[in-house]
Amino acid sequence: MLLTMLRSMVDAWPDEVYAERIVETKLLGQRTHFVVDPALIRTLLVDEAASLEREAFMTRALAPALGRGLLTSDGSLWRSQRRTTAPVFRPDHIRTFVPGMAAAAEATRDRWLARPREAPAADLAQEMMRTAFDIITTTMASGEPGLDAARFAAAMEDYLGQTNWKMAYVMLGLPGWLPHPGARRGAAAARALRTAVTGLIAARRARGGAEQDLLGLLLTAPHPETDRAMPDEQLVDNLLTFVAAGHETTALALTWTFRLLADHPGVERRVLAEIAAAGLDIARAPDLADRLPYARQVLMEAMRLYPPAPLMVRRTTRAIRLGDTPIPAGRSVHVPIYALHRHRRLWERPDVFDPDRFDPAQHAARDRHAYLPFGAGPRVCIGMGMAMTECLVVLATLLPAFRLRPAAPTMPTARFRVTLRPHGGMPMHLTRREG
After folding, report:
1. CA 424, CA 149: separation in Å to the nearest integer?
2. What is the per-residue pLDDT across 23-39, written as a single tens digit (0 to 9) for each?
3. For residues 406 and 396, what is the distance between their CA atoms, to the nearest angstrom?
4. What are the C-alpha distances in Å from 131 to residues 111, 137, 323?
5. Are 423 and 413 in contact (CB under 8 A)?
6. How far is it, in rounded angstroms, from Cα 157 to Cα 160?
7. Beta bridge partners of 220
8. Could you give the 3-state DSSP secondary structure of residue 244?
9. What is the pTM of this model?
10. CA of residue 63 relative to chain centroid, distance
């Protein structure tokens, strides 16, 4: 079981999570409830939200780098930060980020155009990580000269790459100081990340920049009750949280989407036709989500099959009841989103890629809690609108310019390492579309 979890936690889930409403099992000796029914998920994440806290194994894995930001805090600290940061992600602010997103996507397109025609397959996962990181650093800090984007991205990769060990150690009851593979590199990466962001904040304050990027908006965001600005340590925690959660998940959503489009040329043709009909500057249009409805459906279906964040974990702080099932205080409760999205009671042909599942009529008739790529309840992903906009910008920029074709016939295995990654990367041939 330990080796399976270190490889991918999804592989350690019991088969029943794809067919039953609620499943009780043991993971590394911890009694755990998997909740895979939309009505019960709503009870858990909405009605009983105040009875839950972050699970220790996830907090210990992420807190050394992300501190006590939105992703790792609970209670009043979380509520305070959520209320302060929520206005930063208003639709009007996201629209101002679109030109920067488009510029980063165009830089990727130009980089691909400069590749020799006979160049070997590229790892699309790494390409999308680079593109998404360029976008997040541009929208976060407007290309601040003090940020070494390549080193920052490498440090983030080093940190996230060793988190499965930290999660397993907590579940086994092992002390945090016990060495594990990648621990020293991960600790150095956490220090480097926090130092870099602390320097960004200091540099922006020193020169008095008034840019309306994420950093600028957060520096001036007042607490809704005290009207005070966020303390520097919370700024560091939340900027790193937005980078870790934002660039990694968006890059993976795009990686899986491009691969699924390559495997389904009919769907790809529909997306290309929609982009062409929308006009040449669609990638820079502030209303591109309204003008690319089918592309949005494709992204939603890709995130159903391959949700970048495939698991939500909580621990009960008091006894609760989910339907007929009593859950005692202190119990680990999981919402296995990957299994929910492939659940045999909820989805017809659950393993088949079909973007028409998300046409407006079908999607409106579906239970809100059957599809959770961005979570649900009070802790629903704060950057959901920004992530969808970013994905559409990148699709609208790259797909008309390049035909992407897999270097291997079979889809890479999906492995859960905080996020859902393609094992071995996503090697794809990048061929220019003529004309």
Report:
1. 24
2. 999 876 678 999 999 99
3. 20
4. 11, 10, 44
5. yes
6. 5
7. none
8. helix
9. 0.92
10. 17
